[in-house]
Amino acid sequence: MRTQLKFSLATLALAASPALSGCGAAKPVIEAPSASSPGPSDANAALSGAAAAPLGGAPKCASATLGSACASAKPTAVPSASAAAAAPPSAPSAAPALAPAPTQKPVQSGLARGTTDASDSELAAADSAYQADDLASAKTHYENARRLAPKDPAPQIGAVRVALAASDVATDFASAPKNPSVLGWLRRVDAALKLDENYAPAYVERGRLLLILGSAPEALSALDQAQRLAPNDAETQSALGVALLATGKPAEALSRLKRAAELDPDNAERLTNLGTAHLIQGEVPEAIRAFSRAAELEPNNARVHGDLGACYLALNQPAKALPDLDRAVALAPDHATFVSNLSYAYFLSGQLDQAVSTATKATMLDPKLGSAWITLGTALAKKGDFAGAERAYQRAVAIDPTDPRAKANLAELADMKRAKAGASPDKAPNK
């Protein structure tokens, strides 16, 4: 099922490296919000962006050039949750049927309002199709709704959502700066806001597009306006949480993601984002509860099992981590991070041969995954293959010369080699 916001900001390294009688193993890696599969970006770069201005007021209007000045929307009173999605002026309706057809139940975070209008019925059908990834049908129904109610911003926002979902534009944070398609969709959102400047879903979509463009402060402002207009919408709270993470405000993000999960408690993606936010705050048990519930809701979701397994690794509980990491790899065998974490779990549980073979597979899947090389080196060192361990650590250093783990392990490995040769470490020459 499709949720409205799909972001993956980064990967996060978690647990401290354990003592290994000489070498520290690689840390487990866990995916960060999202709500989708991650990119290989660095966590610190993704989550420590320039601090945004304090929340408040209406956002700058959307424009083709980010950061350009424009007239702000007029301040308005915040409506109640029930009034937040008030229907716009309706188009002339068709002749009424003898008995009104039953309306579909509005999709969570959809655009339909649950009325009996013909245009709203089309919105409901479009929302359901969008959730089911039937984008062609969703596009048709949103277009039908637009023809029936041309002054309603909802079909316009729905069309933008479908266009983005059908495109090849990645939805990671800052994945498409200055992308002409995204800028074009931003202008369409701006046009929808001219139809109704108090339409909360338009601000949500605007914030979403700004996040993709990498303009986190402007996205934060738009999403703040959305939550003022519709404080009880789960997608609004979730999107705002992602923007707060992108602007280096993890504590505030956590509160928003908690609220999103409360409003939409049976959505695995909300729970996965919440779990990651807990991890950023160092609250691993709380993260495990969120990921465990997500796994119950979506037992075939590889990311959920991968993240849950990484949580157990962070607590140095490989026996609990192994089943979930095994499941993650079974569901996504080509996902190098899952395979690397599984190798680390094998290492912690003393299964060195399996740790070596699994870490080797991870390095083949992604030769630039430094953690996999470090785990491979550590397992080889534990087996006494110092030459192989040194080669693995050198690969990790070449990938990221600033990573202190590989350098520290190389130094410890040198001490272990000298000790094995019978030389005193403090008298041995420096390398």
Features:
431 residues; mainly alpha; two-stranded antiparallel sheet; 1% strand
What are the segments in which pLDDT stays under 50 over at least 5 consecutive residues?
A: 3-24, 34-105, 427-431
- What's the total count of β strands? 2
Shape label: elongated
Number of helices: 18
How does this structure look, described?
There is one protein chain. With 431 residues, the protein is mainly α. Helices cover 57% and strands 1% of the residues. The chain is built from 18 helices and two strands. It has a two-stranded antiparallel ribbon. Helix 6 packs parallel to helix 8. The protein is elongated and about 85 Å long.
Question: Care to give the gist of this entry?
Answer:
By secondary structure, this protein is mainly α. Helices cover 57% and strands 1% of the residues. It is built from 18 helices and 2 strands.
Reconstruct the topology from this structure.
Elements: E1 11-13, E2 29-31, H1 43-47, H2 118-131, H3 135-148, H4 153-166, H5 180-195, H6 200-213, H7 216-229, H8 234-246, H9 250-263, H10 268-280, H11 284-297, H12 302-314, H13 318-331, H14 336-348, H15 352-365, H16 370-383, H17 386-399, H18 404-421
Antiparallel strand pairs: 1-2
